Amino acid sequence: MADNSNVVEGEVLKEKTTQAASEPGVANSEILINMESLIKGHISTIDKLSDESRKLKDMLDDIFTNDTTYQEHDKAAKEAAKIKQNTKRQILKQPQAADLDRKIKELKSELKENQASLSDYLQEYARMSGVNEIEGEDGEVREIVYTAKLIKKSSIFAGK
């Protein structure tokens, strides 16, 4: 027979059924409303911080603009950069350098295309498998992560 010496009598309370628990859609909509509020708050904070940062940067730029020593050094640096760029252009006219430059650009383009394809494949793999990790050919386990960002719709259409 079981030892009941540690049993304490108590009152059994009937669980309260909330509307959110009985209707999953309501709970989800409340969560979405809260999430939307958080997102909007963060957007406002980011906009305020960006504006403040821009103002402070403008003030700092004005200090540099009004300093004659800095202006002289900036002018000399720009001239040196121009000379460096012209030298670089001359070297890139050499067949060996031009060939290497072309190959580098092709590889960068191919790398970018492969990274975009991999992103699509990983997203589909995670969706279909329900798993957010994958083991590579090297035996290393990697986690699938996503990055989201907001782009103003007016900016999308203005650029095209």
Protein described:
By secondary structure, this protein is mainly alpha-helical. The chain is 70% helix and 4% strand. It has a two-stranded antiparallel sheet with strand order 1-2. The longest helix is centred in the first third of the chain and has 42 residues, at 24-65. The protein is flat and about 70 Å long. The model is unreliable at 1-8 and 12-22 (pLDDT under 50).
User: What is the average per-residue confidence, as pLDDT, rounded to a whole number?
Assistant: 85
Describe the global form. flat
Question: Which ranges are low-confidence, i.e. pLDDT below 50, for 5 or more consecutive residues?
Answer: 1-8, 12-22
Alpha plus pi helix count: 5
The proportion of residues in beta strands is under 5%
Q: What helical percentage do the residues reach?
A: over 70%
Largest sheet: 2 strands, antiparallel
- Termini separation comes to 80 Å
Number of strands: 2
Q: Give the helices and strands as they follow along the chain.
A: HHHHEEH
Strands ordered across the widest β-sheet: 1-2
What is the SS-derived class?
A: mainly alpha
Rg is 30 Å
Overview features:
160 residues, 5 helices, two-stranded antiparallel ribbon, mainly alpha
Give the SSE layout:
Blueprint: H1 19-22, H2 24-65, H3 68-92, H4 95-129, E1 133-135, E2 141-143, H5 153-158
Antiparallel strand pairs: 1-2
